[in-house]
Amino acid sequence: MVWNLSFFSVAETAALGEALRTLVMRSRKAVDRLLAGEGSSYTRTKWLLFISSHGPLRSTDLADAFGLAPRTVTEAIDALERDGLVRRDPDPKDRRAKRISITPAGGEVVAWAEPVVQRFFEQVFSALDNEEQVRLASLLGRLTDRLDMLERESGQEPDPA
Question: Hey, where are the domains in the chain?
């Protein structure tokens, strides 16, 4: 399906993208400030939540899930491991690979941070009633589907993030 944006000027269409970017960036910064007191961040919490709910995982699983380069994943896991939040254990099926799992300290960060993040987004989205929230989720889903299609048309793999 092709979306018709002809009723918007180029500047207005660009403004929609900028408004979405602003919301995302300001939300991430606000969550980072909320989590900083406990030494976490939005990104760290996202990694820990994913590992906690899907682990133990190989770094390639994380690279695929977040659409990141293997080196980026290695650096992130190195930092989490250095802080005692995750550990690497040998993969029983592949002696060359390691499985990444959350430590008790990482579990404590998740237990503390998850409700903070949830409460923040509940407060943000409370500006919309339930019907508006459902409609926004639907619209964002349609935009994501369109982005996937555009990426495929240009020969790119859609970004799973």
Answer: 10-153
Task: Determine the topology of domain 10-153 in CATH.
Answer: Arc Repressor Mutant, subunit A (1.10.10)
The per-residue pLDDT for range 116-131, each reduced to its tens digit, is 999 999 999 999 999 9
CA separation for the pair 13, 120 (Å, rounded): 28
Cis peptide before 56 (omega within 30 of 0): yes
Q: State the average pLDDT for the chain.
A: 88
